[in-house]
Amino acid sequence: MIYCLILFTNLFFNTNSWVFDFGEGKTGEEWMIVNDGVMGGLSRGKVEFNETTITFSGDVSLENNGGFTSFRSPYGLYDLSEYDKVEIKYRLDGLNCALSFDQNRRFWRPNHKMPLPSTDNIWMTLEANLYELSQYQMGRETGRRMSPYNAKNTIRLGIITDSKEAGSFKLEIDYIKFFKAEN
Q: Is the pTM of this model over 0.85?
């Protein structure tokens, strides 16, 4: 009896992970599209909520200094310091994307990214060490990695096209999960 209670508690009240579970009535409805139009570009992105997933798709244009579209969480404190792994279940056709981690509201300040390569529309679960994610500034890798300070002070998460080329993409996401690796 006690074993069943412990198992039930671990399964349903596990605080060792943080999951963004996408789909209708779930995570993502407060997230927003940010296109390169803020800088004069012509790229377009859109979001569709499905029963258990979310689809982010669009067209990237390099016209008028453009080159990206993104889907971003609201600003807030996303303290990721108690986790060391990130996992995303997705399928992507077309241009590569990235999961982004912002620590500053100013777009020209460094952020961190987890590359999401195209899967030819086949479901894939990708896992990465949070502290091995590369830092970027204005699209260029700095050679630094995410630190515990960066993880603790993440203020926004997002998905951004990451190919630096014109084209179309369709990204479907089931979930994004942060967790502590078992030793």
A: yes
